[in-house]
Design goal:
Blueprint lengths: L2 H7 L12 H15 L7 H12 L4 E5 L5 H11 L4 E5 L6 H5 E6 L4 E6 L6 E5 L6 H4 L3 H6 L1 E4 L2 E4 L5 E7 L11 H4 L4 E3 L6 H10 L15 H12 L5 H16 L7 H17 L7 H12 L11 H11 L4
Parallel strand pairs: 1-8, 1-9, 2-5, 5-8
Antiparallel strand pairs: 3-4, 6-7
Helix pairs in contact: 2-3, 2-4, 10-12, 11-12, 12-13, 13-14
C-alpha cells in the first residue's frame, strides 16, 4: 500500500456512525475541556471555541501576540482527542507543495507516488499563517472547505475528523501578508487569547516549574468519539424561527457594511449554534445559542469603509434585530 492509498483510506468513512446521545456528547465536551485546562490556564472559553469549531466541521483562526499559548492550546486539544497533530510554520519562502504534498517519481515502480504533506492530520496548526505569500495561503482553500487536497489532478481525502487551527501575528504588519477574504471566510471562528491575569500567570508558572504538563497529558476521547459527537451536532433541531433569525442577522451586516456575512458565514453560525446547544445539553437550538456564537463567527467576515469594525456591526445587529 502506498502513502497515498493510506491517506485515502483514512479519509471520511462512507458508513455513517451512530451519534452520541446529547447528554453523553455534553459530558464528552466537558471532559475534554477539563483535560485541556490541565495545560492551559484561564482560557476555558477559547478551548470551547476550538471544540465548537471542530464539532461544527469547521476551522479556527487565532489572532494574537506571540507567546500567549496558541501552539500549546492546539497541541493540548489534539492530545486530549487522541488525534493526529501536525504543525506548519508559515514563512515567506514556504511553497504550496510544502503544505499539501507532492508527487514523486519512484524509480522502482516507474510511477509517480504521492507523498502527503503536513496538512494530512486531524488537527493542523498553521503557525503565523499570514507570514506566507498569497499563493501558499491559497493551498489551504480547497482543504478547508472540502476536506480534500488535489495534486497533479488527483484528489486525496484528509483524515476525518479534520480541522485547521491557524495563528495570525498582529504585531508586525510590515512583515506579513493580509489574508485574502476567501480564506478568512473559510474560518468558522476567529478568536483572541489575550494576556493572562496575574493570578492565572502565577498558576501557570507553578505548573511549568518542573516538567511541562503537556508531556504527561493523556487523551480522554477517541477519534470515533469525535466523529459520533459531530453526528450529534448535525442532528440538533433548528426550527424555522431560529433559521430566520440567523438570516436577518446576516442581512443586517450586508446592509450596514461594504462586505457583509456570506451564506457560508450563516451556515457556520447555524452549525456553531448547534454545537453550542450540545455543549449546554440540549437537542435543539435557541436564540441564545445564536447570540453567543455570532461575535466569533461573523465579525471577521465583515468589511467596512470606515473605522467601524466587524465586531461593532455584529453587536449592533444583536441589539437591533428582533427575535421573533
Amino acid at each position: 500500500m502506498t502513502d497515498a492509498d493510506a491517506i485515502t483510506e483514512s479519509g471520511p468513512a462512507e458508513t455513517s456512525l451512530d451519534p452520541l446521545d446529547v447528554d453523553n456528547a455534553a459530558k464528552l465536551t466537558t471532559r475534554i475541556v477539563d483535560n485541556v485546562e490541565r495545560v492551559i490556564v484561564g482560557h476555558r472559553d477559547a478551548i470551547e471555541h476550538i471544540l465548537i469549531a471542530l464539532f461544527a466541521r469547521g476551522n479556527l483562526l487565532l489572532e494574537d501576540v506571540p507567546g500567549v499559548g496558541k501552539t500549546m492550546l492546539a497541541r493540548a486539544v489534539a492530545t486530549s482527542l487522541e488525534c493526529s497533530f501536525s504543525r506548519v510554520q508559515f514563512t515567506p519562502d514556504l511553497l504550496p507543495a510544502d503544505v499539501t504534498g507532492v508527487s514523486v517519481f519512484n524509480e522502482k515502480t516507474r510511477e509517480f507516488e504521492f507523498q502527503p504533506g503536513p496538512i494530512f492530520a486531524n488537527v493542523v496548526l498553521g503557525d503565523e499563517i499570514n507570514r506566507a505569500p498569497p499563493k501558499t495561503q491559497a493551498a489551504l482553500l480547497e482543504v478547508m472547505a472540502e476536506q480534500q487536497v488535489t495534486v497533479d489532478g488527483e484528489t486525496h481525502a484528509v483524515p476525518d475528523p479534520f480541522t485547521v487551527i491557524a495563528t495570525q501575528n498582529d504585531v508586525e504588519p510590515g512583515r506579513t501578508y493580509e489574508l485574502p477574504v476567501a480564506e478568512i471566510d473559510r474560518f468558522t471562528k476567529k478568536i483572541r487569547l489575550g494576556y493572562p491575569t496575574e493570578a492565572e500567570e502565577t498558576e501557570l508558572l507553578g505548573r511549568v516549574a518542573g516538567e511541562h504538563p503537556i508531556e504527561s497529558l493523556e487523551s480522554v476521547a477517541t477519534v470515533e468519539d469525535v466523529r459520533r459527537a459531530r453526528e450529534t451536532v448535525s442532528g440538533v433541531t433548528v426550527r424555522e424561527p431560529v433559521r430566520a433569525y440567523v438570516s436577518r442577522l446576516a442581512g443586517y451586516t450586508r446592509e450596514h457594511a461594504r462586505l457583509g456575512v456570506s451564506p457560508r458565514g450563516t451556515i457556520a453560525l447555524l452549525r456553531s449554534a448547534q454545537a453550542r446547544a450540545v455543549f449546554e445539553g440540549r437537542g435543539y437550538v435557541i436564540p441564545d445559542d445564536v447570540q453567543t456564537e455570532a461575535p466569533t463567527v461573523l465579525s471577521h467576515r465583515i468589511r467596512t469603509d470606515s473605522d467601524v469594525d466587524g465586531g461593532s456591526i455584529v453587536d449592533r445587529a444583536l441589539e437591533e434585530v428582533a427575535v421573533e
